Amino acid sequence: MSIRILIADDQDLIRGALAALLGLEEDLEIVAQTGRGDEVAALVAEHNVDVALLDIEMPGRNGIDVAAELTNSGSACRALIVTTFGRPGYLRRAMAAGARGFVVKDTPAEQLAKTIREVAAGRRVVDPVLAAESMGVGESPFSPREAEVLAAAADGASVREVAARVHLSAGTVRNHLSAAIGKTGAGNRAEAARIARDRGWLLDT
Fold it and tell me: Per residue in 135-171, pLDDT tens?
């Protein structure tokens, strides 16, 4: 029995390379591909997918939210995160969302194929280096609002612009930014956003 695979990655070259490499394995069958996270669930249902390989940062919906969607829907499809962004915070969030595995894109093809088989069999597979790092970094210290405000301010927008984006007063935005800066030990909000992204505490959709 072949393992039916969906590949979701917004980079055409990466998606094509993964499909070509995995297609060489006799027991792996690529049945669907997409560059958007919000198309995954429908394709999984349409093609009876066993394992969905999900990038994290994709248009429409990020891979972690897609993993949660598949888990919460009761789908038999298992989510495997395959990403460039090997950040400890992402690993924690992905596994909490129901992903069965988490590896980085420079994983050798043979090892990735083995990981897919393990995930299809119901086992969890996590990059051991990332697993160790995630223990040291810990979970995000931000409240949901603090994370939302810091993400909205990460591009250098003014407090007034951020307030309009997140529908809060300018004073409340300043308070949330101050709290986020303090929790990261940063000197300013740009540094706080950088630290938070490096640790996987902020996630774009």
Answer: 556 677 889 899 899 989 988 889 999 999 999 999 9
Please give the model's pTM, rounded to 2 decimal places. 0.70
Q: Give dist(CA 56, CA 105) in Å, integer.
A: 11
**Reduced DSSP (H G I as helix, E B as strand, rest coil) percent helix, strand, coil of the chain, to 5:** 50, 15, 35
Dihedral sign for Cα atoms in the order 61, 67, 72, 76:
positive
Taking the C-alpha atoms of residue 117 and residue 125, their distance in angstroms, rounded to an integer, is: 10
14-48 CB burial, b ≥16 within 10 A, e <16:
bbeebbebbeebeebbbbbbbbebbbbbebbeebe
Q: Long-range CB contacts (< 8 A, 24+ apart) of 41-48?
A: 41/66, 41/69, 41/70, 41/73, 41/75, 43/6, 44/6, 44/70, 44/75, 44/77, 45/75, 47/4, 47/6, 48/4
